[in-house]
Amino acid sequence: MEREVEMKGIARWGGWFALAAVASLLFCSPASAQFSEPTQSIAVRPQFLKDIRIDQKLNAQVPLDLTFVDENGQPVQLKQYFSPGRPVVLSLVYFTCPMLCTQVLNGLLNVLKEQTSLDAGKDFEVLTVSIDPTDTPALAKAKQEMYTGIYARPTGAAGWHFLTGREPQIRALADAVGFHYAYDPESHQYAHASGIMVLTPDGRVSRYFYGIEYHARDMRLGLVEASGGKIGTPVDALLLLCCQYDPHTGRYGVLIARILKAAGGLTIVLMGIAIFFLARSERYALPAKKS
Asked: Other C-beta atoms within 10 Å of 189: how many?
């Protein structure tokens, strides 16, 4: 009997010790990781990294007379890619980037493939411009063939363009959309933020989407809104009435007030129709008065 009581006590204490161990892992591990992993304060970051960011310049005009070189080695002006009713998706990367640029382009590719009823080259254009003036048209061509091949839409090759250019033109375009980057001579790489932009058909900045993964609904709404409703469906127009772009997050959020207002308006219309038909049926149901 005493042996059984002793074993129960050991089991009880063992349970408490196990619980304490789990709690220590849950509550102490983040703190220990914080001190064990190397961290770097913003104050001690290299000077050139302090200005790496994307400033939102909504409605800013992109200089469409800037000249670049396309993937076929031909000189082009930005205005060639802008036409009425067709917005432009802009990404600023460089073609020899070892990591981040590839992730940005992969994220862009994925979100474009998710646009099942909107096609690059038919409903909108895509411009991928290198920020590295040493990138060549041959590199641009290789990137274009790879990404449009995976995109696999009939109009993809004609709608997704990879451009290179000289430093002044690249800087002018980047400054126009608030894209700040810097060259690190030690690593021979460019430091830059990650994100893409949607431009209107006349070359004004309409929307920013941050990071390396982009939501299909946000991209679709951004394209429809930038086109002024020239592309998309009536459902997209209705969604835009119920959603609003948040410049802080680069996302479209649902506005409850707008939904309630729309629902209230629809209710009033339906009630009016119902009253009309009820009044009409009652009029025809009344017996005619005898003279």
From this structure: 17
Q: Which two tokens stand for residue 136?
A: 């060549």
Q: Give CA–CA dist 41/32, Å, rounded.
A: 18
- How many other C-beta atoms can be found within 10 angstroms of the C-beta atom of residue 165? 23
pLDDT digits 0-9 by tens, 134-148: 999 999 999 999 999
pTM (2 decimals)?
0.70
Other beta carbons less than 10 A from residue 177's beta carbon: 19
Q: Which residue has the higher pLDDT, 209 or 33?
A: 209
